[in-house]
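To illustrate the input format used throughout this study, we show a single complete record. The first block contains the structure-token representation of the backbone; no residue identities are included at this stage. The design step must infer an amino acid for every position from geometry alone.
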């Protein structure tokens, strides 16, 4: 890309920032065992990229229970109680290259970072604080606002206009994520979409959804820095 002014990076968490080897699904599996008396494996639903509440609704429906926000909240709360132990059990860590990118972007006045995630706020805080990166993000659009990811991207644009500038435009936004849902929600608002094949979807599947740019991973931070026209010098980038 050609050099641009101020930009906003909207980061997904699971499979993009965080490598947790199934901590979230394991916590939901434990939650279903407690809530229903038997386990409903998360693998039985289409969960990658879905919001926590969309997952809870799908599990309630699969169990033949009444699908209400109140029931979903109980299930999500149970999931959250098990999340820290599952992060420990799976040795959760930042994806390769991501910590360096977060630190680099944080040092640049013209780059703002925020979250666009299917996690509820509390789940986001648990995950990001666990790997020590929670301080990099100015604000976030979380599943507490809506169970639909496309609604969250619209909410993120509204938040950008509240926190950054009243006329902040979507063409200054880059949505970074590892699922087709991340690509779709970015396109809904007219943002650039940065897909990374570090989650459950292959390069071929992600490419079929036509992101603005696609990387196999962010292990080489220079790939994303070059795309954003941020000069790279050694281990750090400078404006």
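Output of the design step:
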């Amino acid at each position: 890309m050609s050099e641009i002014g101020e930009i906003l990076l909207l980061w997904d968490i699971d499979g993009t920032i965080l490598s947790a080897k199934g901590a979230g699904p394991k916590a939901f599996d434990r939650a279903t065992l407690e809530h229903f008396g038997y386990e409903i494996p998360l693998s039985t639903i289409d969960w990658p990229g879905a919001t926590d509440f969309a997952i809870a609704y799908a599990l309630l429906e699969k169990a033949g229970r009444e699908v209400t926000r109140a029931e979903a909240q109980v299930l999500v709360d149970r999931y959250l109680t098990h999340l820290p132990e599952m992060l420990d059990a799976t040795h959760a860590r930042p994806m390769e290259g991501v910590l360096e990118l977060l630190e680099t972007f944080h040092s640049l006045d013209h780059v703002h970072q925020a979250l666009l995630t299917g996690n509820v706020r509390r789940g986001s805080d648990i995950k990001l604080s666990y790997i020590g990166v929670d301080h990099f993000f100015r604000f976030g659009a979380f599943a507490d606002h809506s169970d639909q990811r496309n609604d969250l991207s619209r909410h993120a644009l509204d938040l950008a206009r509240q926190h950054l500038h009243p006329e902040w435009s979507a063409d200054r936004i880059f949505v970074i994520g590892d699922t087709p849902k991340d690509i779709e929600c970015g396109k809904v608002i007219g943002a650039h979409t940065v897909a990374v094949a570090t989650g459950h979807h292959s390069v071929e599947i992600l490419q079929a959804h036509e992101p603005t740019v696609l990387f196999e991973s962010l292990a080489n931070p220079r790939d994303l820095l070059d795309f954003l026209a941020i000069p790279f010098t050694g281990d750090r980038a400078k404006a």
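Structural context for interpreting the output: The chain has two domains: 7-19+94-237, 23-89. The longest strand covers residues 111-116.
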